[in-house]
Design a protein that fits this description.
The chain is an alpha/beta fold and 191 residues long. The protein has helices at 17-30, 80-83, 104-111, 124-132, 138-149, 154-166, 171-187, and strands spanning 4-12, 34-40, 49-57, 72-75, 95-99, 118-122, 189-190. It has a 7-stranded mixed beta sheet, with helices on both faces.
């Protein structure tokens, strides 16, 4: 039986949730898996809440719809914890990864995640400010996802970032993203 992992990303326009969702799907393909990544937009403007979806499978992905019952939820902006209903459909065995400095009880309360066993946090904002010199939490969140779930190998992600971003950005930007992914991989913690 083919195993499919469904990942839902919550962020705001301009934070890179769409890029992260599609990047993870493409990286999975490079590991011989099947992947699908796509965004769901509301009002298309900077700062507006958006969702991204990633499906990773051992076999072809034939679903082309929103993810209602994710295995993993990533939240790029903790202000969405109360307003975006990020834990809708996330079961007790699901994984919630939040970019935040809040303590676990506050994350659980704001996200209505009392039943979710696996809650992880990382300060992706600070990592991106340190490494990228701007608030762009998407690549650190990818590092967290890899560490927490093992859905991808870290080496695959770092290699693909160098290749994909190397075509569009200066070498220092690429290196900043590599460092941000590695730091988040090392710094994410279960709470």
């Amino acid at each position: 039986m083919e195993r499919m992992t469904e990942i839902r990303w919550h962020g705001r326009g301009g934070q890179g949730a769409k890029t992260a969702a599609t990047f993870v799907a493409e990286a999975c393909i490079h590991e011989g898996k099947y992947g699908q990544g796509n965004p769901e937009y509301g009002p298309e403007r900077m700062g507006a809440p958006i969702r991204g979806y990633t499906r990773v499978s051992d076999g072809p992905v034939r679903l082309h719809c929103a993810i209602e019952h994710p295995d993993i939820v990533l939240v790029l902006d903790d202000t969405l914890l109360e307003t975006a209903r990020v834990c809708d459909g996330l079961g007790p065995d699901g994984v919630l990864i939040v970019n935040t400095t809040l303590d676990v009880s506050e994350v659980r309360k704001r996200a209505s995640a009392q039943d979710t066993q696996h809650v992880w946090t990382v300060n992706a904002t600070q990592i991106s400010l340190d490494e990228l010199k701007r608030d762009m939490p998407n690549t650190p969140m990818i590092g967290s996802l890899v560490k927490v779930t093992g859905v991808l190998e870290l080496e695959t992600v770092l290699h693909d970032i160098k290749i994909k971003f190397g075509k569009k950005f200066r070498a220092d930007v690429v290196e900043g993203n590599v460092k941000a992914i590695q730091r988040a991989y090392d710094e994410v913690k279960e709470v």
